[in-house]
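Appendix B: a complete holo record

For completeness, this appendix reproduces one full record from the ligand-bound portion of the collection. The bound molecule is adenosine-5'-diphosphate. The inputs are the chain sequence and the ligand SMILES; the output is the full three-dimensional arrangement of the complex, encoded as structure tokens. No fields have been trimmed.
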Amino acid sequence: MRKTATPEATKQLASTLAPYLHEGDVILLEGDLGAGKTQFVQGIAEGLGIRAAATSPTFNILLQYDGGRLPLYHFDLYRLDDASELEDIDFYGTVEGDGVSFIEWGSKFPEAMPFGFLEIKIGIDEDGVRAVKAHAFGTRARSMLKVWASDSKSRLMKVGN
Ligand SMILES: Nc1ncnc2c1ncn2[C@@H]1O[C@H](COP(=O)(O)OP(=O)(O)O)[C@@H](O)[C@H]1O
Ligand SMILES: [Mg+2]
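The structure of the chain with adenosine-5'-diphosphate bound, as generated:
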């Protein structure tokens, strides 16, 4: 768990994960509206060397960013009503594809999520500080989390306890 007091700190923490991402990795982002999930993806984009800013995909269910070390796919499933719509946006092909996928509101369609993924939950304390927690599902996610957690830069972002 890491605490981030500003949007910049959330982005910086996210950017420390970017070097450890591999083709085909899937990261589920959980947290209320406004928690900072999209900010986190912006930090990933920066960490991958993508120059265009990752804007909120709430109205765009899938945004794709090229030009970085890996293609970045940013899904926001908030506005999807039915899992069948995932096929329309080639969700399954994309998450198994050549890039890394960050998925907001994936918990709406748990049966559609791949077997292995890193889950990142962002909570908001009373003082507005974000608590960023990561939980790995599957062997690939476990090794990703292990190297990320031991990265000295990711530890520098820890504030408070
Ligand atoms: N520590 C923080 N981390 C991330 N965002 C923060 C933080 N403090 C304030 N914010 C603000 O909260 C909002 C988060 O928005 P966004 O990332 O779009 O949320 P989500 O995608 O989870 O709905 C932004 O307006 C951002 O400036
Ligand atoms: Mg968002």
